[in-house]
User: Fold this.
Amino acid sequence: MHQMLYEIKDYFEGSNPDLKFSEYHSLKINPSQLHKSKMEHKYAIFVLGNELANAMKEVEFSASGRISARMRELAAKTLKEMEYIQ
Assistant:
């Protein structure tokens, strides 16, 4: 899942250089980093999903607002789980 979203991110960045995906990049994680925990990858998926949904708003996908909101909720929940584990 992480790899597929990462490839979609690359596509969006290639077609619109103004897109930065800054929150995802700040995590300093990518799909090939197998030493990262499952929880870190899960969080990255939700953060990236949120940023992709926001990028899709620019292209007028009607459901992207709901997707973005849900990804934001799931990212927040996962972050709390990560903090609880540590």
